[in-house]
Amino acid sequence: MAMTAAILLALAATHAAAEPRSEIIDYGITAGRRIPGTPGPGEAGLAPASEMKNIRYLDRTDRIEARLCRNFGLSLRLSDDIPRVLPRQVSVRVEHPPLARPDGKTSTEDRFPSAVIDGVSHVGFTFEHEWEMAAGDWTIIVAIRGREIARKAFTITLPPPGAPNSDCGVG
C-alpha cells in the first residue's frame, strides 16, 4: 500500500511539474481593435502594450513590411493530457533590433503578459511609432512560468521608397 501511494505521489509530482503543450495555429499580419493600456506587472519595453480584441489574420506570412498601425503576431493553442485549468496568461518576449525613442532610451526586447482565453492566446506587436519600425530579425517567444513553449521568427522589412508607410485608418 505504501509503495502504491509513493508511486502515485511521484506520478502526480511529475505531471504537476509538466506544463501544457502549445501549438501555433496561425501567424502573420493581423487586424483588430487595440485597447490602449497602461504598463502591467512584468511588462518592459519602450511603450506600454495594448490589448487586442476581435483579431483576424489578413496574411499568413513571416515576412512583415513595417507600417504604422500594422499588427503582426501569432495565435497559440494550449493543451494538456489531463483536463485541468490552463494558465490564465502566458509571458511574451519580443526580441528585435535596437529601437530608440526620441528621448534616447533604447531597447532590444519587449516583455508583456498575454491572456489565455478558452485555451488560446494571441501575441503580437503593433508599429505605433516610426521609431519602432526597425528592419531585421524579430522573434516572439512565449513562456509559462519561465519555460519556453513557443517561438516564431519574423523578418521585418521597410516599405520601398515612395510606398505608403502607414496602415492607420485602413480596414
From TrEMBL:
Domain DUF3859: 41-155
Signal peptide: 1-18
The keyword Signal appears for this protein: yes
InterPro entries assigned to the protein according to its UniProt record, in alphabetical order: DUF3859
Keywords linked to the UniProt accession: Signal
Keyword Signal: yes
Protein name as annotated: DUF3859 domain-containing protein
